[in-house]
Amino acid sequence: MPVLDTAALLHWPAERLQGGIVTHSQLDELRKLSPQRAMLVESIEMEWMSMGTGDAESAAANTGDLPRLSPVDLEILAVALATGQTLFTDDYSLQNVCRSLNHPFESVSNKKSEQQWAWELRCIGCRATKKADSQTEEECEICGSPMKVKRSRG
Ligand SMILES: [Zn+2]
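Above: inputs. Below: predicted complex with zinc ion.
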């Protein structure tokens, strides 16, 4: 039984959604995005779960992806980790955290990111780089230009 992110709930046919694991917070999200789709999803036999996100948050903090993940994303990740089931998501940050934990994941739309990456700060002036501990942009210690958060191959 796969764990499905909201993109799957929006785009997959009902037959494919059947039996999937989802979180209650996703249903709230889906109601805002597409009330019609929410009604359809509620009529399908799926496993609805709620989960604390502590472990998911630590894992996402380790890869630097935490600031890019919503509370709903983190809960989906937490459910995937707790159940050991494959996570279907197109969110690169979720995929990145799964990859760092060797947790199985698949894409919703069959596009899968190939590479593990890390986040780094890169100076727009002198191109110096440093590891990004957070997503906060700072000034370069060498030349004083702004440093922007970029993806780097990890
Ligand atoms: Zn610089």
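Helices lie at 6-11, 14-17, 24-33, 35-42, 54-63, 71-83, 92-100.
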